[in-house]
Design goal:
It holds the Pfam family DUF6850. InterPro entries: DUF6850 (IPR049236). Keywords: Signal. This is DUF6850 domain-containing protein. The chain is globular, with a radius of gyration of 25 Å. It has helices at about 1-20, 30-35, 40-50, 55-60, 440-455; strands spanning about 65-75, 85-100, 100-120, 130-135, 140-155, 160-175, 180-200, 205-220, 240-245, 250, 255-275, 280-295, 300-320, 325-340, 350-365, 370-385, 390-410, 415-435, 460-470, 475-490, 505-515. The longest helix is centred in the first third of the chain and has 18 residues, at about 1-20. By secondary structure, it is mainly beta. About 10% of the residues lie in helices and about 60% in strands. The protein has one domain (about 25-515): Porin (Beta Barrel).
């Protein structure tokens, strides 16, 4: 709470500073609003958030936004361990400014999330591989409060040829269910980065970075009604330990553990800028994370498993200005490879792998008082989970398409309105499915079968967004934004198993936000 109050004071001090500008000063609110509606510039801005190396080359000199929003989701077209309905109230502020020769970017976000009908998922939802967690067949309502603070800073030395940067990413989460079985999860994650670069020529720059991070998750499952705590009266109240991706074991005693994680990684950067061919930016990241799951009492520490995961990211961004118009092309490739080591068996039992290939292109056409944004995107996603104890081996392969058109109009009084429309299609490509019937149990029927059916059907839908803003005082733009998304699936694939829990036909998303730009 103390951190929240400090943050609110900082926000209001920023607004006060904006109001204190001379009346003939350029309207920063209008510039910030125009910046966020330019698809190519905003693509570069989001690319630069990953490292302080890009602060001075890809971010504007000044941009600030404060947003209060509400998201709503409902529908059974989702993975088995996701909520059938979700409410998310959030407060987000971000911006970049210059302090003498130092560029500083920061972002703070707060999310209050309420999930309904969550089963087999006492987890933070921050771990892509999910190697070790508790879960129950009984659906529970989850509440989550998540705070996230990010900051980047960069300064040039030696006649602006030696940029040095620092960054921090700190997240705190509190997750708990409000009915039995009552999961209670507290977590924090701290990630740091330091970068150094050198301008080899006026056009070519190179750089490198080092990343370090650590975190902690503490998990506990309890029951207010002790008569159902052992699952004898009602089996769906049993607590299960999901260790890998096979049938779990009932775990109704010592329902607590913690996960101590550490991360180390390196970055490499290359940037090239030419008036003729445009601006090229390439980045590489490799991060190795070790997750140590254990049980702690006053008598000592019992080691459960260690999970190692290696993340690699390759990203290339090309920007090109064509008169008043602009073009961006972003290409990315990401892999996550994880394996566990179970102390009980002194062996590996769970292997996780995914790889993601992204291609996104945006073109912004400006004419008179109108801005036209055209965006197309492709995303190929492949995932494989192998559980040696259960004998499960499941692979999926998907291709996701998006196409978007947006229009923004700004009049002489700096009032603006806009809309965008997006088409979405998720195509199932191919998959492998090996699950032994002899190991079929409550988790396999309700989660593994359900998720395989969900992932092997194609889906289609669309998004519609409206935006309106007006000048407020002298240096602020105030606006409202509303969007809605609808997704629907095709027929399910027949893979020779009986589904006790079938993915729903559709899912609905809606968002509304109030925004200040300054």
């Amino acid at each position: 709470m103390k951190q929240t109050l400090i943050y609110i004071l900082l926000v209001f001090s920023s607004i006060f500073s904006a109001l204190a500008q001379e009346k003939d000063t350029l309207n920063f609110g209008t510039k910030s609003k125009s910046f966020i509606t330019d698809s190519t510039n905003f693509t570069a801005y989001n690319f630069a958030k990953s490292s302080p190396f890009y602060l001075k080359s890809l971010m504007p000199l000044k941009y600030n936004r404060l947003s209060a929003g509400y998201n709503f989701e409902k529908g059974n077209l989702t993975l088995a361990q996701n909520a059938t309905s979700l409410n998310n109230a959030n407060l987000i502020t971000e911006g970049i400014s210059q302090l003498n020769s130092i560029s500083i970017w920061g972002q703070f976000s707060y999310h209050k999330i309420v999930e309904d009908s969550t089963a087999f998922a006492h987890q933070t939802r921050n771990n892509v591989a999910n190697p070790y967690y508790f879960g129950s067949p009984k659906s529970v309502s989850y509440q989550r409060a998540i705070y996230n603070l990010k900051a980047l800073a960069s300064r040039n030395f030696i006649q602006n040829n030696l940029p040095i940067g620092l960054g921090v990413d700190y997240r705190i989460g509190n997750h708990y269910s409000t009915n039995d079985p009552r999961g209670d999860i507290g977590d924090y994650q701290l990630n740091l980065i330091g970068t150094i670069g050198y301008n080899l020529t006026k056009s070519l720059r190179v750089g490198a970075g080092y990343r370090y991070g650590y975190g902690l998750e503490k998990v506990n499952v309890a029951y207010k009604n002790s008569s159902v705590s052992q699952g004898k009266l009602i089996p769906e109240f049993n607590n299960y330990l999901i260790n890998g991706y096979g049938e779990p074991e009932i775990f109704n005693t010592d329902r607590t553990f913690q996960n101590n994680s550490t991360r180390n990684g390196i970055d490499a950067y290359i940037g090239y800028n030419s008036n003729k061919i445009g601006n090229f930016n390439f980045s590489f990241q490799a991060i190795k994370e070790i997750q140590d799951y254990n049980y702690r009492t006053g008598e000592g520490i019992t080691e459960y498993i260690k999970f190692n995961i290696v993340n690699e990211y390759y990203k290339l961004l090309w920007l090109k200005n064509i008169s008043k118009n602009s073009l961006s092309v972003e290409l990315g490739y990401q892999t996550n490879d994880g394996d566990n080591f179970i102390n009980k068996y002194l062996a590996n039992s769970y292997l996780y792998n995914n790889n993601i290939l992204n291609l996104k292109s945006a073109f912004t056409l400006k004419k008179n008082q109108f801005s036209h944004n055209f965006v197309i995107g492709l995303r190929k996603y492949e995932e494989r989970k192998r559980d040696g104890i259960a004998g499960n081996d499941i692979r999926l392969n998907q291709l996701n398409y998006t196409i978007n058109y947006g229009l923004t109009h700004v009049n002489e009084k700096s009032q603006s309105w806009g809309f965008s429309i997006t088409g979405i299609y998720d195509q199932y490509l191919d998959s492998d499915f090996e699950v032994l019937r002899i190991n079929e149990g409550v988790f396999t029927r309700n989660v593994i079968y359900h998720d395989y059916a969900y992932n092997t059907t194609s889906k289609f839908g669309g998004n519609l967004t409206f935006d309106y803003s007006i000048p407020l005082f002298n240096q602020i733009q105030a606006g409202i934004k509303w969007s809605t998304t609808y997704l629907r699936r095709n027929d399910l694939q027949d893979f020779g198993r009986i589904l006790t829990k079938v993915p729903g036909k559709d899912r609905f998303f809606s968002n509304i936000s109030l925004n200040l730009y300054f």
